[in-house]
């Protein structure tokens, strides 16, 4: 099963990057009509990059769902496999439950961060090489909100770097939540799809509420899945975020981590008891 898990991760990663490549070239095709002419320098590349992100006009939904599965499994697959098999008792005796959980959380977090960083840097490379070199400007905030509601800074370079870092952290936090839920899942095969199931459930729980209510929008946006994994990209009911996107990101991260820590503590106490 461990070998199959590794094969699953490799095959899924290859398929995922293929989808990212296809999505990037589809976006490049759509944006060919706005390439700058003559000596005019444009920031069209950064606009295309954000168009490829969740909620962007060229978002690849299939790739997004696959990432929900790949990001948590890449770092935590081995630990969940060990937990669900007889060899776990030997691991537990050698390193203890606390060490097992600590290693699992750290590896899961950085594994998911790596997937996010690879994705975004790969997209940047494709855009830079096959479309137009990245040029960064300082533009009015109102103009920026025309294509990205949660614009963090009028400096496009700083905004891009901050988005990439926050998205990577957000995916790491989500992966830890999936790992904490996975501690209670006894079937390895079910864990492979736990990320998409949990991610889509978190999306639906937010959008099923009354989006015309400011109270609900504020509450839902504070823990919305894409507030954490695609900071600054989403609006609710076509309206700008009810609270600052950066503040909402940290609130969501805290909520997810508190839930994950609670589940891990419950699992640990059960094993100790």
Count the DSSP helices.
Answer: 11
Number of strands: 0
Q: Rg, please?
A: 20 Å
Strand content: under 5%
Oligomer: single chain
H/E topology pattern: HHHHHHHHHHH
Biggest sheet: strands, sense, closure? none
Helix-and-strand structural type: mainly alpha
Shape: globular
Proportion of residues in helical segments: over 70%
**What's the rounded overall pLDDT mean?**
86
The low-confidence runs, each spanning 5 or more residues with pLDDT under 50, are none
Structure description:
- The protein has 273 residues and is mostly helical.
- 71% of the residues lie in helices and 0% in strands.
- The protein contains eleven helices and no strands.
- The chain has helices spanning 2-31, 44-51, 61-83, 88-130, 141-144, 156-182, 188-192, 194-207, 214-221, 225-229, 245-272.
- Helix 3 packs antiparallel against helix 4 (88-130) and helix 3 crosses helix 8 (194-207).
- The longest helix is centred in the middle third of the chain and has 43 residues, at 88-130.
């Amino acid at each position: 099963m461990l070998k199959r898990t590794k094969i699953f991760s490799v095959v899924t990663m290859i398929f995922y990057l293929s989808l990212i490549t296809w999505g990037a070239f589809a976006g490049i095709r759509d944006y060919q009509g706005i390439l700058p002419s003559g000596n005019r320098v444009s920031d069209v590349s950064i606009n295309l990059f954000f168009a490829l992100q969740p909620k962007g006009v060229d978002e690849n939904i299939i790739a997004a769902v696959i990432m929900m599965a790949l990001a948590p499994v890449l770092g935590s697959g081995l630990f969940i496999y060990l937990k669900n098999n007889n060899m776990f008792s030997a691991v537990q005796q050698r390193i203890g439950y606390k060490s097992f959980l600590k290693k699992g959380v750290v590896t899961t977090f950085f594994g998911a961060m790596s997937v996010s960083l690879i994705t975004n840097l790969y997209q940047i490379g494709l855009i830079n090489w096959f479309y137009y070199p990245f040029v960064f400007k300082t533009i009015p905030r109102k103009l920026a909100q025309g294509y990205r509601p949660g614009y963090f800074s009028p400096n496009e370079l700083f905004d891009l770097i901050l988005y990439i870092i926050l998205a990577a952290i957000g995916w790491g936090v989500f992966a830890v939540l999936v790992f904490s839920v996975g501690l209670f899942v006894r079937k390895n095969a079910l864990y492979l799809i736990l990320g998409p199931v949990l991610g889509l459930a978190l999306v639906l729980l937010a959008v099923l509420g009354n989006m015309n209510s400011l109270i609900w929008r504020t509450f839902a946006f504070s823990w919305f899945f894409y507030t954490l994994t695609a900071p600054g990209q989403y609006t609710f009911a076509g309206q700008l975020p009810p609270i600052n996107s950066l503040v909402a990101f940290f609130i969501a991260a805290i909520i997810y981590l508190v839930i994950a820590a609670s589940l891990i503590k419950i699992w640990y106490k059960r094993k100790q008891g």
